[in-house]
Amino acid sequence: MGDYSKALQFYTRAHKIYEKNLPPIHPSLAGSHLNFATCYEKMGDYITALEALYSGFRIQQKAFQEGNPAFASTYSWFGRVYRDMQNYSKALDYFEKCLAIDLKTLPEGHPFQALTYSNIGDVYRLMRDYEKALSFHQKALNIQENVQCNSLECATTYTNLGETYRQMKDYSTALTYFRKGLEIREMKLPKNHPDLAVIYHNVAKVYLATRQYSIAMKNVQCAVEIAQGKLLSNHPHLLDYKETFEKIRENL
Known about the structure:
By secondary structure, the protein is mostly helical. It has a domain at about 190-250: Serine Threonine Protein Phosphatase 5, Tetratricopeptide repeat, CATH 1.25.40. Helix content is about 80%, strand content about 0%. It starts with a helix and ends with a helix.
C-alpha cells in the first residue's frame, strides 16, 4: 500500500524474533535484511538500504553456494539502489549478475527475466544509450505480453519505455506508454500509492515539454499530493516533483 514506515515496524518485529530463534546464518535472516533494504530504497534512504543489502548478502554467502537462485533477488536490489544513487556501472553489473542466474535457473521466458531486462533497459536509458534501452525493454515486453505475469511489472516496463521515448523527445509515443502503465497502476494500486505519483510526474514532464502547462500542472499536483502524504520531506522523488511544479508554475 506504499506505507513503508509501517512496513518497517513489522519487519523489525519479525527480525527480532528471527534473531532470537534462528542461527546467525539462517536464510530467513538474510531475507529479513532484504526486506529492510526494500523499504529503505522506497523511502529514498539509499545508504541504509545498501547497508541492509550487504548484511543480507554476507549471510547468503555463508548459507549458499555462488549461483544459488537466492542471490538473484539480492543482486537485483543492489542494482536498483546503485541506479538510484546514479552509479550506473555498478547497477548494470548487478543486474547482469541477476540475469545470469535467471537465465541459468529459470525456464526461458520467465517473468523474472523480463523484469531484469526492463531494469537493464532503464539503466541504459539513464546512460542515454536509447537504442540499447529500447532493445532490453522490448525483450521484457516480448515476455510480459505473451505469458501470465504480474501486471504491475508490465506497468513498470511501460513506464520505463515512456521515459525512454520522453528523453528521445518522441512525446506522443511516451504518452502512449505512460497511459498504458497508468491504467494498470490505477486499477491495481490504492489512489495514494507512490508508484502512481511516478507516472503522474512523468506525464507532467511530457506536457511541460510540449507547453501544455495546464495539463502539466494538473498531473504534477497529483504527484506532489501523493508524495507529500507518503514520502519523507527530503525524499528525492518529492524534491524532483516540487522542482517540476515550480517550472510549470513559472510558465502559467
